[in-house]
Each structure stands twice: as structure tokens, then as C-alpha cells.
Amino acid sequence: MVSPTPNRPVPDAATQLDIYRRMSTIMQNDVASRRIVKTGRLVMPYYSPRGQEVIPSAISVNLNDDDKICTIYRGIHDMIAKGVPLRALWAEIAGRVTGTCKGKGGPMHITHPASGVMVTTGIVGSSMPIANGIAWAAKLEKSERVTIAYFGDGASNIGAFHESLNMASVWKLPVIFVCQNNGFAEHTRYENATSVDFISKRAIGYGMPGFTVDGNDPLEMYAAANEAVARARAGEGPTLLECKTFRFFGHVFGDDDHYMTKEEKAAAMEKDPVPAFRARLIADGHASEEQLVEMETQIAAEIQDAIDFALGSEVAGLEELTLDVYAATGAE
Amino acid sequence: MTAQTKKINIIQAINEAIAEAMEADPKVLVLGEDVADREGGGVVGVTRGLSTRFGDERVRSTPISEQAIMGAAIGAAISGFKPVAEIMLMNFTTVAMDMIVNHAAKLRFMSGGQTGVPLVVRMMTGAGIASGGQHSDFLEAWFAHTPGLKVVAPSNPEDAKGLMLSCIADPDPCIFVECSRAYGTTAEVPVDLAPIPLGKARIDQEGTDVTIVSYSEIFARAKAAAAELAKEGVSVELIDLRTISPWDRETVLASVAKTGRAVIAHEAVRSFGVGAEISATIHEELFDVLKAPVQRLGGPFTSVPFAKALEDAFVVKSSDIAAAARATLATG
Predict the structure, then answer these.
(1) Of the four, A24, A284, A315, B313, which is 20 to 30 A from B328 by CA?
(2) Is the interface score ipTM higher than 0.90?
(3) B232 and B307 assigned to the same domain
(4) What is the nearest CA distance from A233 to chain B, expressed in angstroms?
């Protein structure tokens, strides 16, 4: 664990509000998603990001529109933070033709290059090798674009992690490996499946800087991301960020969390990062209660609009079944 | 006026195709183990000279990391580049199957057409070089069974060059299978050879009694069988499939409609092989005109063995193909 050093970048008030806006959108979107799954209005496996709002929000305010991300099935917070339009996002989750992928990808495969979401994978660890290729492309084009590979703590035990970090380091790629360590790989507790106390230690083995960050602290997270992005843009190569966090609603929504104690879960939820940051913004004089209520109300309206848009949209025609298998034409 | 030609082997043919594509399009890249000249330009020299000519940024030797190689190729491809990745041996694709099958093949479809994956994966394989069970398999049926991939397997220098040109230009991921036994095969090839379209078989010789369909190095054995049969007065229509997926149903079915008899020969194990798909299609489409059941030849359902006598027995021989043709002629 690397202690915070003095003179780290601090987000200004507007940036802090921007982080909170993204966090609040993710949280409210999650509440709406769980409600709609619970009532059976939409049928999908739902991997709630509740509790992990800070990480992509504090990272994304350091990114440009043309920076890229590759994320995973628990990645809806990463997509919202990067700016995927809510209407197209909800329509995809609802399997409608107006969705990001015409309803053919679904919640586990949201793709929206226009906002930089290049790949969402359902395979643990597979965001990393592809992120390298996107970063390689930026390097070849002598662009300052950076690429973020999001993954979980479980993915740091899969071969793709090892291969990707090694290659990124040897090739000095402008990629940032962001491990959202929520303490559980599916149902398996971190320490029962991982050889080191901090995943960031693994960076040493690949010759790249690695840091463990409090992934629930927006200012810590912002500083770490800001420095990693600066390194990548300067051509100094990749960084591994281990962001410690907690997921509130298990692996897949509906699981009963039998692998943890009620006390442990309650203690983690006590430290809910969204209201904590909200209170901090007010205490620090960066926003008033009224200002935040107005922002939250507007976000709620945007989410409701997106849901209405999605549920009012058509399902793709059956011709889509064999379209996009290859370019231009159907399969055969 | 005859076109100017040059005598080249398959290694040179593929090298020329990649070089011409790199010359014409700065987006074409090469990556793989040992592909740069510092490492010898590939283990058999297919990429020799390319890094010297086009630079180490566009022709990158990689770590022995097949997942990372394919990930880098996929990421670059969805970012607008056209990577030609070398997976040294076809058996080594097994450690990169997630990247090839879950990602390269599916990203276009799952993204609703937003992220096409224009890449080529080259690989060599084939029994007969005393490499045993993990360096020799023909696994083309696995890839042909995967929607989103195209699969190519040339038998001669002209096709190797022309098909490689088409694969690099193709907007979708192409698996390019090179048989190590055939690398040294030479032929006069037009210097300004045009790309050979994918999905088009080549009728090597016309005939009236029986159709023989083959590809890759086994095609040469089919040609020898046809010569043998000609001495017996049997007129063989000989088809080199060239592209396995999408395969040229039209040409094969038109030929069998004419001859009423068909033999299919490949190196891969016979069970569940490409021959089964072609045979089933012929029976479905031409049941009324078939004069005999289709014969299909392939390896026995076993691993490629090391001992020379066993290895020789594994691979379909021209005498096997001729015998199968005679068997169809003895029926009906």
C-alpha cells in the first residue's frame, strides 16, 4: 500500500461536483435497475456495481472523449461514468433495436465507441489483452489517447492478466490496468484465492508502477488516476491501480451473500461512498444541499426518460439474427 | 500477352503478399513470436525482411503470450488497423481460443456492427515433421464451426499469395492455415497477382466420373490420385476448396450434380470434420442425382503420433483417395 504523497493533484470544486454527478447517476441507475429486474419487467442477469461508484467516476473526469475503456460484465458504472448515453444504454439492456448494439449484445456486452466504450466482455480477465491493442493503436498513431482496462480482483488470477501486464510493460503502452478489488471473486473471498495481500504488489513483477488506492475515496482515486493518466500520456507506459471497494449486492443480483457475515456486509454498507462524498461536498463548501437535490432530481428524470425510451422502443426484427456476423451481409 | 511470373514457394508467396499489403496500406501490422528480423523473421522465415523494411513498430516480435498476441491484434483491429498475427503453430491457438472465439469472432455481432475485427491469424501445422501430438493438428473444423470467422487453407504458392491479399483486405477475422509440408512447394506466380476472392473454390481439372474435393497439402495427394485414376480411364473433376468457411457450395454442388459421385479428403480427423459438413450438404441437396454415397477421408480418431511409421499412417495418402474414388465408382 503506497501512502498518499504530498503535492498530489486535487480536483477543483467543479471537478468534484462532476465526480459526484457521475456517482449519483450510477447509484440512481442501479436502484432503478434492481427495481426493474425485481419486478420482472426486464429479464437479465444483473451484476450490480452499487458500492463501486467512486472508481470510474474519479477516473473518467481525467479522461477525454477519445480515450478508450474496456470493461467487464460488472461494468455499467464504468460505462455511465465514461458517458454512454442513458437512453441507448437502457435500450440495450432492454434488448431493443435502439440500444447501443441493437439489442444484440445485452448488458454484458455494451459497446459504444462514440463514448469510448470499445469492449464489454463477459469473460473474466479478457478486457486486458484487448485494451493493450487499443493502446498499441494509439501509440502507433502517436496520439495521446489512453486506454483503461477495468477488471476485478478475481481477474488478477487469470493468465490474461499476466500476459497483458508483461506485454504492456515491454511495449510501454499507454494503458492503465484498473483492478476494482471488492473483496470477492464471485463467491470466493479474496484471501482464499489470491497469493498476495495487495494486488498492486504484482506490478513489481511486470516492471510497472502499482498502487493500492482507497477506491471509495474520490479524492484519493482522482489523484491516483490523474498521475497514471499523465504517465500514460507522457509515453512512460502502463500503471496498475488496485482500487479497494465493496459490492453491496453480491456477485449477481439475487444471490444471498451466504459467503459473508451479515455484520461484515452491514459494516461495509455503513461506509457507503455516495452519501459520504455528498456530505463531504457540502461540508467543504463545494455545493449546497439545494444544489445537490436539484442535480439528483435532474438525474432521476434522465434515468426515467431513458427507461421510458427503452421500454417504448421496438425489438430488432428477426433479420438481425444473422446480420453483423460478417460485414455487410448475413452469415450465408 | 502473358503476365510476367516468378518462381516462388509458399513461404515467399505469403511474405510477398504481406509486404505488398504493408506497402499499400500503413494500417497493416505484423505481430507474433519471433516475427521481426532481430529474431530471425519468423521460425520458418515467413515474415523475414518485413521489420527491416517497414520498421519495428509495425512488425513486432511478442512475448510467448498467445492471449496477449490475439488481444493486441483485436484491440488494434477495432481501432482501425489491420493486424496480421502469427500464432506459430495451430495447436497454440488453443491457449488463445477465448480471444479468437469469444472476441475476434463475436465483437462485430455483439456490438451490433460497430466494432468489426479486420485481422488475419496465420498459423502452420501438419503431421509428417516428427513433432508429435501437440504441434501437428489440423483444427480448421473448430474455427469453421465458429460464426464470425473465415477460414482459409491454400495448397500452392499462387493461392497462398492471392488468398493472403484477400484476407488482409477483408473486414472480418480470417484464420489462415499453412501446412508446413507444403511450404517448399514452388510454382510460377504472376508478379502482379490480383487478390483471390475468399469463398471461391478452384476447379483444378474438369472431369465427368467423380468429383474429388480437397484443400491444403492433401490437395496435392488428391491430384496424384486423379493422375493415377486417369490411367485407369477415370475422369476426375478435381476441386481445391481453398476457403473452408465460407465454403464454395455452388462450385462443389454443380460439380457433383454433373458427376454424381464425390470424395472429400483432408488431413484433420475424419469424425466431425469439414468433410462431414460437405458430405451432408451434398446428400441434402443432391440426393436424387447421387450415384453412390459420398466418401470422406481424414485422419483416424487419434492423436498425431511420433513414430515415423505411425505418423505416415495417420495422414491420408493418394492411394487412399484413389481407392475411395474407385469405391464410389463400384456403386450404382
Answers:
(1) B313
(2) yes
(3) yes
(4) 18
